[in-house]
Amino acid sequence: MGKYLHASSSVASTDVPEEMLGLGSHALRHAIFHPKLLDVFSGAAAGMYTPADLRQDALSGMTVGIIALSLSMALGIASESTPAIG
User: Fold this and answer.
1) What does the DSSP 8-state code read for residue 82?
2) CB of 4 within 8 A of CB of 28?
3) Across residues 39-43, what is the average pLDDT?
4) Measured distance CA(6)–CA(40) in Å, rounded
5) How far apart are the C-alpha atoms of 68 and 49, rounded to whole Å?
6) Secondary structure (DSSP) of 4-35
7) Angle at 37 between CA 26 and CA 15, to 5 degrees
8) 3-class DSSP assignment, residue 80
């Protein structure tokens, strides 16, 4: 079942706040979930991801996209079809 218990269970896990134990299991799961990405961008994880890193990653992503697009067009032409098929 995992580390958290359903609301119908008589034993509560120490990781679950008491006010959330009355919620259904679906609501409980969504109330506990906190994406790590929010911590990274908010600065809670100091020094993990900076705006300079974001700029470099965006530039890298655009470069890969341009290369992939031109490669797929070349494969379409090489297979005696149109670039759109590639």
Assistant:
1) -
2) yes
3) 73
4) 30
5) 26
6) SPPTT-SS--TTS-GGGTTS-HHHHHHHH---
7) 45
8) coil
